[in-house]
Design brief:
eight-stranded mixed beta sheet; alpha/beta; binds adenosine-5'-triphosphate; 56% helix; elongated; binds magnesium ion
């Protein structure tokens, strides 16, 4: 393990604490959020918790290992989990569009709901609004939590993955953004074109919706405005609901039963981004339980530095007929170089965020795509 001083993060302190009911795994794109969420879920279940894990766009092979073949918003039992400690594991994939539809159905009469769901404008917004995925992840978390506290499902821990946004901050900000888009201000904006007419107000609108202009102009053909007006008429009573629900779920995140785990890659930019996110969580009074630095390169032969391996390779190559050994040394030089670089950026991160408990997960030789792979990652999270 890299010699990085500072408090260590042991995921078990969170997973084994019965007071913790929600764990949110967040971080920037591609760092290993889904893998970490699934690994913690397997670990918690095998330690006796009754877990449901909400994944978002898992890699195909990981989805298969979790028994997730279809996107149907339904938690299903995961096979191959050791349940001898009394735990269980269910997994699901977020279906963003379906979740949006459920919100509409829950907040309007069946006739109105049918009208809204068929509206072309609704279809466009529900599948393409920037932030919809984040909002719907929150919404789904709210639903799962409700089912858990009402005892409708046999869960005592919800682990949530977050969408693949560029920045982890999107997860915290999107519900607010979508909420204000869908509340009263949105209605005013949307009814403006009818009163004022003309292109200018449409421009304002298109900026509000956040769709690319080309998409907008395609949509703006013919019936678009009528669709929007019908949509507003049908959803008038629903908008407050969106905002309220976003606020309620946000409040849930700030409660002590919720733990944030921030995942990051051992690279300078990724760690800087994670640092911003951790600061933001702290200022919103929900400091992360810990941080996971994923895919750390570790070399088994740390005594042989990158420089020495490089030198050795040159020496062997000069002598000829030791090509294989030289190639091995070059690979080691490269790995040792990466490992050293990662240790130093990590040490720098430590200086800027000395209090954050930190766990490191070594880069596995292959993608994490089965239960055993998840167990291995989980074991690393235990330190
Ligand atoms: N420690 C690891 N060792 C090797 N491979 C890993 C490790 N962690 C994650 N991976 C692999 O990296 C890829 C990305 O991981 P993952 O899907 O968990 O990232 P993510 O943060 O959820 O990405 P996105 O932002 O796109 O949702 C996957 O193929 C996964 O198997
Ligand atoms: Mg993911």
């Amino acid at each position: 393990m890299a010699a990085v001083k500072g408090p260590a993060f042991d995921a078990d302190t969170v997973l084994a604490d019965p007071e913790r009911r929600i764990v949110v795994c967040c971080g920037s794109g591609g760092v290993g959020k889904t893998t970490t969420a699934a690994a913690m879920a397997v670990r918690a279940a095998e330690q006796g918790r009754r877990v449901v894990v909400l994944t978002i766009d898992p890699a195909r092979r990981l989805a298969q290992a979790l028994g997730l073949e279809e996107l149907d918003n339904t938690p299903r039992p995961v096979e191959g989990i050791d349940t001898s400690a009394g735990g269980s594991l269910e997994a699901m994939m977020l279906d963003m569009k379906r979740t949006f539809d459920e919100v509409v159905e829950a907040h309007s009469s069946p006739e109105k709901a049918a009208q809204i769901l068929a509206n072309p404008f609704y279809i466009a917004v529900s599948s393409s609004f920037a932030g919809t995925q984040e909002y719907m992840a929150m919404e789904k978390l709210g639903q799962l939590h409700e089912q858990m506290v009402q005892g409708a499902r046999d869960w005592d821990l919800i682990i949530v993955d977050t969408p693949p946004s560029r920045s982890a901050l999107d997860f915290l900000d999107a519900p607010q953004r979508l909420g204000s888009f869908l509340d009263g201000r949105f209605i005013r904006l949307m009814t403006a074109p009818a009163k004022v007419g003309g292109r200018a107000s449409l421009k304002v609108f298109s900026a509000g919706v956040g769709l690319a202009n080309t998409v907008m102009s395609r949509l703006l053909g013919g019936d678009f405005l009528r669709d929007v007006q019908t949509f507003i008429a049908a959803t008038d009573t629903m908008f407050g609901g969106f905002r309220q629900r976003a606020d309620a779920t946000y409040a849930l995140l700030a409660r002590p039963e919720t733990a944030f785990v921030v995942v990051a890659a051992p690279e300078r930019d990724a760690l800087r981004e994670a640092g911003y996110f951790i600061d933001r969580l702290a200022s919103d009074r929900m400091p992360p339980a810990g941080m996971v630095v994923n895919r750390l390169h570790v070399t088994r032969a740390r005594k042989i530095s990158a420089d020495r391996a490089e030198e050795g390779a040159e020496h062997l190559e000069a002598k000829g007929d030791h090509d294989l050994a030289a190639a091995v040394l070059r690979v080691h030089a490269e790995l040792a170089g990466t490992a050293a670089r990662q240790r130093s950026v990590l040490a720098r991160f430590r200086t800027s965020h000395p209090g954050v408990p930190l766990a490191t997960v070594p880069a596995q030789p292959v993608d994490v795509h089965d239960i055993q792979g998840l167990r291995d990652v989980g074991a690393a999270l235990h330190g």
